[in-house]
Amino acid sequence: QGQLVESGGGLVQAGSSLRLSCTASGRKFKNYALAWFRQAPGKEREFLAGISWAGTSTLYEPSVQGRFIISKDDPRKPVELQMNRLRPDDTGVYYCAAAEGYATLKSPEYWGQGTQVTVST
Predict the structure, then answer these.
(1) What mean pLDDT comes out for the span 50-63?
(2) Could you give the CA distance from residue 115 to residue 113 in angstroms, rounded to a whole number?
(3) First-last CA distance in the chain
(4) Residue 90 DSSP symbol
(5) Residue 86: which of 40, 21, 17 has the closest Cα?
(6) What are the phi and psi torsion angles at 100 (to 5°)?
(7) 3-state secondary structure of 19
(8) How far is 113 from 63, CA to CA, in rounded Å?
(9) Binning pLDDT at 50, 70 and 90, where does residue 59 land?
(10) What is the model's pLDDT at position 50?
(11) I need a surface site. Which of 9, 43, 79, 108 has the fewest CB within 10 A?
(12) Cβ(119)–Cβ(94) under 8 Å?
């Protein structure tokens, strides 16, 4: 068994930065690629960024490229999402997800519970 646990959400002002962290516990997630998704109010959940198990390959949605950075110092360490120059439309629930392969990052098999990020004007 294993689980994905997100942390680091909160309420911030527009223009601020925030760092989210996702801990993937359990042997189940060894060699899994990890990704961050967001679900804004009234919208479908969308892919934001993903990273391979080794941390050597990353993928970004164009809307966050250049503002968000996904990273993982070590395959066994938490994956982080550094979010800069936050905007009110970045508000939503942010989910960590795990995919069996880097090629299926946008269709992960496992999800965390999510952490709320609210960006005020």
Answers:
(1) 94
(2) 7
(3) 41
(4) G
(5) 17
(6) -60, -30
(7) strand
(8) 23
(9) very high
(10) 97
(11) 43
(12) no
pLDDT above 90 coverage of the chain, percent: 86
Tokens of 63: 């809307």
- Mean pLDDT (whole number) for 94-104: 94
DSSP secondary structure of 55-69: S--EEE-TTTBTTEE
| Alpha-carbon radius of gyration of the chain | 13
The Cα 45–Cα 55 span in angstroms is 24
Tens-place pLDDT, residues 7-38: 999 999 999 999 999 999 887 888 899 999 99
Residue for token digits 């004007």? 121
| Token pair recorded at residue 67 | 């503002």
